[in-house]
């Protein structure tokens, strides 16, 4: 049974994601639309992970591993592709903002976030490199 705070966290995260998706439709400015898409995907992906964890717990399955060890799974690679694409999107929005005369704060924030995400991506690629032959796919050892 979920606590009231856990329910509130799921409702709040889902509402923020849906609200951002609504802003994508409402905004006329391309930069603001890109930022709203970025926020919507971030919030909705966190919401999805929480709900999938709840469903797995309800069925008696172990919760998904957030920081896995060993060879990365296909789901982890999907997360990496989605979040790396999101980071490219926010930097692109920052570049568009600078080109039209903006202050560049969005681009600087995007570059800082990209640095953190690339660090995490590099860690997962390093895990893959260390365990690339450990699978049953017939890889070299």
Distance between the termini: 46 Å
Largest sheet composition: none
| Broad structural category | mainly alpha
Radius of gyration (Å): 18 Å
Strand content: under 5%
- Helix count from the secondary structure assignment: 4
What is the H-and-E element order?
HHHH
Name the shape in a single word: flat
Q: Give the number of DSSP strands.
A: 0
Write down the domain tally: 2
Average predicted local confidence, pLDDT:
86
Low-confidence stretches: none
Overall helicity: over 70%
List keywords for this structure.
141 residues; mainly alpha; 4 helices; flat
What do these coordinates show?
There is one protein chain. This protein is an all-alpha fold. It folds into 2 domains: 1-64; 66-132. Helix content is 74%, strand content 0%. It has 4 helices and no strands. The longest helix is centred in the first third of the chain and has 29 residues, at 30-58.
